[in-house]
Amino acid sequence: MEILKQKLLESGLVRESGVLQVDHFLKQQSDVVLLDKLADEFAARYANEGVTKVLTVEAAGIAVATLTAVKLGVPLVYATRARQGSAGEHLIAAKLEAPAGTISADLVVPREYLTEADRVLVIDDFLAQGSTLFSLIDLVSASGATLVGCGVMVEKVFCGGGNEVRARDVRLESLAKIVEMSPEAGIIFED
Q1: What is the chain's percent helix, strand, coil content, to nearest 5?
Q2: Who contacts 80 (Cβ-Cβ below 8 Å, separation ≥6)?
Q3: C-alpha distances in angstroms, 158 versus 91, 150, 185?
Q4: In the 8-state DSSP scheme, what is residue 26?
Q5: How far apart are CA 46 and CA 190, in angstroms?
Q6: For residues 16 and 97, what is the distance between their CA atoms, to the nearest angstrom?
Q7: One pLDDT digit (tens) per residue for the chain, 191 residues
Q8: Dihedral angle computed from the Cα positions of residues 173, 135, 146 and 144, in that order, rounded to the nearest 10 degrees
Q9: What is the rounded distance in angstroms from the CA atom of residue 140 to the CA atom of residue 75?
Q10: Residues whose CB falls within 8 Å of the CB of residue 172, separated by 6 or more in sequence, listed in order
Q11: Rounded to an integer, what distance in angstroms lies between the CA atom of residue 65 and that of residue 117?
């Protein structure tokens, strides 16, 4: 999607650590006009799939997932990190494997929010190794709902998570695919 690629090139900051900083337009401070266009794109790509719920994880994915849900006319559900002592039969849980050096957690959703009758579209902001997306997919599976597919704003192709998602035979729509990035070279997109 050209508008997203252009914004990433103009405003994305590639750090030495390999992090693409987008907090100032996609996260803590959001370019809502851009997010609205991204949501239009997700809604158009999944318009004929009978989506009944949009699922994301708390924090960064909520803004674009909310707008996508509005455009599809369906509820938004977001998974939260389990609080100590919050596990119970009323929750669906999936393990979130955190990168080395960080704390793993469970993602949870109340059972009544995802049912066997639902057709779920998962939306997230970034896809690198895929741990968050896999946890959301596992939540859908544990609920008995049907996974329609996944949409991510930015896929870091070089991290391999997208290939793993596709290997599970899951439909994955990425609005921008980065094949390489560094402070020196900048951002290089897949054609």
Answers
A1: 30, 35, 35
A2: 57, 58, 107, 108, 109
A3: 34, 19, 15
A4: B
A5: 22
A6: 24
A7: 999 999 999 999 998 887 898 988 887 888 999 999 999 999 999 999 999 999 999 877 899 999 999 999 999 998 887 765 455 567 877 777 655 555 567 889 999 999 999 999 999 999 999 999 999 999 999 999 999 999 999 999 999 999 999 999 999 999 999 999 999 989 999 97
A8: 180
A9: 15
A10: 127, 149, 150, 151, 152, 155, 162, 165, 166
A11: 20
Cα 80 from Cα 95, distance rounded (Å): 12
Phi, psi of 189 (to 5 degrees): -100, 155
Single-letter amino acid, residue 159 = C
Determine the 3-state secondary structure of 112 from DSSP.
Answer: helix
DSSP 8-state code for residue 30 = B
Identify the three-state secondary structure at position 52. coil
Q: Is 49 helix (H, G, I), strand (E, B) or coil?
A: coil
Give the number of residues written for the chain.
Answer: 191
State both tokens at 128.
């690198």
- Would you say 87 and 108 are in contact if contact means Cβ atoms under 8 Å apart? yes
Report H helices in the chain: 2-11, 32-45, 62-72, 131-143, 161-167
